[in-house]
Design goal:
Oligomer: single chain
Order of helices and strands: EHHEEHHHHHEHEHHEEHEHEH
Strand order of the largest sheet: 6-5-7-8-4-9
Distance between the termini: 38 Å
Low-confidence stretches: 89-103
Mean pLDDT: 83
Number of helices: 13
Largest sheet: 6 strands, parallel
Strand content: 15-25%
């Protein structure tokens, strides 16, 4: 059923901020929710399926309330992802959000006090991390796998649930060679660990992160340095796990000690291992699927919270791979 609704903001400055330069924010909302928005002066007319129009109106009203100053494109996109997750599979690419998911949403205590999942898959991912000793987050880039895992780790250390955070990645080249990078080993692997540093800085702030490193509360290391260790009372994250071998994955998973929690994240469509080598993440998803205490969360393009073009790129590659099979 087609529904038409009119939104008439009374503050022209807020309306300008809501619309964005050349109405870019309105166009993003229009595309993300599969509705038609026409603007004439200070009047916005919304047309489309009833549920989508209602979601669009609620989103515009929410953004308008925040539009005392120009709205960042990122803020609009994040709000749009959350709104789209409630309107069904056509526009959002996923099932409508379960009201119980919203009611039970996990709020993480970081420098961003209101940090939480924005899509049903993200909401379930956070609950799985809190309810399982080992959680796998598998899906494309931009779905928040690593960022939310790091946020859970920061939350855990803020609550004193763990004594330290250990972040690790395999140092596997994506078409480039470590040997041609300048510096010693630590400097060579630093680019591989940079995304983890970035998440920490965003969630805790530069000064607190540096202080935590000095106290030994946070450790960032390449996966090769994990062998032979037992990690007790720690929150351990293995990022880019698609680039582990089966032997490395088994080695990592058996490092977990008492009072520890582990999250393994990766994108099985971006394996950079040499030809002929199996991905430890792909094997683990098959071997450990029925093991009690281990949870698997799978993300899709609908969970992408970066630039909207990222989701369309992921969908295009998925469609191409499906067609090639």
């Amino acid at each position: 059923m087609i529904l038409r609704h009119v939104f008439e903001p009374t503050d022209n400055l807020r309306l300008a901020h809501l619309a964005g330069a050349l109405d870019q924010h309105l166009r993003a909302v229009e595309a993300g929710l599969a509705v038609h928005i026409s603007r004439r002066g200070a009047v916005l007319r919304i047309e489309g399926q009833r549920q989508r129009v209602q979601a669009c109106l609620a989103l515009l009203q929410s953004l308008y309330a925040q539009a005392g100053q120009p709205l960042a494109a990122q803020a609009v996109q994040l709000a749009l992802v959350e709104a789209a997750s409630s309107v069904g599979p056509v526009a959002a690419g996923l099932a409508p959000t379960d009201p119980d998911d919203v009611a039970d949403a996990v709020v993480l205590h970081t420098r961003r006090a209101d940090l939480r999942g924005r899509t049903p898959n993200q909401l379930r991912y956070l609950r799985q991390i809190l309810g399982h000793d080992i959680t796998f987050g598998i899906g494309p880039a931009g779905t928040g796998k690593t960022y939310l895992a790091v946020a859970c780790a920061v939350d855990a250390i803020e609550r004193c649930s763990v004594e330290r955070i250990v972040l690790t990645r395999p140092a596997v080249e994506a078409g480039e060679r470590l040997g041609f990078l300048p510096g010693d080993l630590a400097q060579k692997v630093d680019p591989y660990l940079r995304p983890l540093y970035d998440a920490l800085y965003d969630l805790m702030g530069l000064e607190r992160v540096n202080a935590a490193f000095e106290r030994g509360q946070i450790e960032v290391a390449p996966l090769a340095f994990m062998r032979g260790r037992t990690l007790n009372h720690a929150f351990v994250i293995l990022d880019e796990a698609q680039n582990t071998t089966p032997e490395q994955m088994k080695m990592f998973l058996t490092r977990i000690g008492f009072g520890s929690r582990a999250v393994v994240t990766g994108d099985t469509s971006q394996v950079d291992l040499p030809r002929g080598h199996s991905s430890g993440l792909i094997q683990a998803a098959e071997v450990l699927a029925q093991v009690k205490g281990i949870a698997f969360s799978r993300f899709t393009a609908a969970d992408v919270v970066r630039h909207p073009l990222v989701a369309r790129i992921v969908e295009a590659y998925d469609a191409a791979q499906t067609g090639a099979r």
